[in-house]
Design goal:
Distance between the termini: 25 Å
Shape: globular
Organism: Roseibium alexandrii (strain DSM 17067 / NCIMB 14079 / DFL-11) (Labrenzia alexandrii)
Structural class: alpha/beta
Order of helices and strands: HEHEHEH
GO molecular function: aldehyde-lyase activity
InterPro entries: HpcH-HpaI_aldolase (IPR050251), Pyrv/PenolPyrv_kinase-like_dom (IPR015813), Pyrv_kinase-like_dom_sf (IPR040442)
Largest sheet: 3 strands, parallel
Number of helices: 4
Protein name: 2,4-dihydroxyhept-2-ene-1,7-dioic acid aldolase
Strand content: 5-15%
Radius of gyration: 13 Å
Amino acid sequence: MTDPKTLADKLRSGQPVITGWSMLAAPIVAELFARSGYEAVTLDLQHGMHDFKSASDGFAALVLGGAHRIARIPVGGNATASRLADMGAEMPDWLQ
């Protein structure tokens, strides 16, 4: 079996995915998590300091760092989830 490349593929195959957790709204923090070896980084918009702008900047930094992009959204933040998916947040197939 080849190594799954997308986050959805990894989750579907049962592989564990270790994620860094970024509460600070600075893109460099997310990029440092990625460059430190975390294969995914979660940007926390619910209890962290992230907002849509910092999350979209953070996703760009995660692409540079080579990590999967995950966002924790506020409860009831469906519009935010849709906009973050448009900006590159990854999600498993069953949530799409």
